[in-house]
Amino acid sequence: NDEALRRKRAIYEGCGSTKTCFGSPNGCIETQDCKAAVTVLVKGERYIFEMIGESGKYVAVGLSSDDKMGDDSIVECVENGGQISVHTSWNDGKKNKRLPSVENIVNPEEGTLEDGRIYCRFSRERRSIVNNQEFDIENKDYYLLLAMGSSLKSNGVGYHDVLREASGSAVRLSDVAEVAVADDILIRVHGALMIASWVGTASVGILLARYYKQTWLRSQLCGKDHWFVWH
């Protein structure tokens, strides 16, 4: 109904003008149909985070010095038994470990579950010490990591099998921006070039060995027949 749609789209209000927004898939902030999203609104010294996850058992946001998992401060919004709770954790390499308390890091404010959609709101301190590392979201730039998973562990979240995205660049949360996901175009170009090179060179090698082995014999390079060298 209209009221449910209004609540669903409320998180996108002010994106790019009054608050920083990051969602997946890329471009979903404008179309207001993200599978998962996080927004950050600065009110004085308070940094108010809102998160949504359209499916799964949890949605989580991480602050990282790069776009990879490792040494990251994580806040999780977790659904368990129809209730939403907020937890903090730490990415130690490729492993995530739940921290004993959210105290001095975040302040949970609201959490709801509606038609399988997780929503939560919490505020985060401008500066906090997490796992003996300082996170200064007012003055330093951080990559945003967004994750969503379908399972929980006894004291933590399971693998991010539903979604995992990183922002395309580090952002300063005291500024306002719409943040794009990291582009994998270079990876795809690299893969395409590798396939083309293997297909092309392998075909040439087969042709040289098949048709020139018995005919290209009178000239040599470095003591080897040309057909052998070039194939």
From TrEMBL:
Keywords: Electron transport, Membrane, Transmembrane, Transmembrane helix, Transport
Broad class of the protein's primary localization: membrane
Subcellular location: Membrane
Transmembrane helix among keywords: yes
Any one cellular-component term (Gene Ontology): membrane
Pfam families: DOMON
Range of residues in the leader sequence: none
SMART domains: DoH
InterPro entries in UniProt: Cyt_b561/ferric_Rdtase_TM, DOMON_domain, FRRS1L
Any Gene Ontology biological process: regulation of postsynaptic membrane neurotransmitter receptor levels
Superkingdom in the source lineage: Eukaryota
Transmembrane segments: 189-209
Domain (Cytochrome b561) ranges: 153-231
Residue ranges of domain DOMON in the record: 32-149
The name this protein goes by in its record: DOMON domain-containing protein
Annotated source species: Bracon brevicornis
Lineage of source species: Eukaryota, Metazoa, Ecdysozoa, Arthropoda, Hexapoda
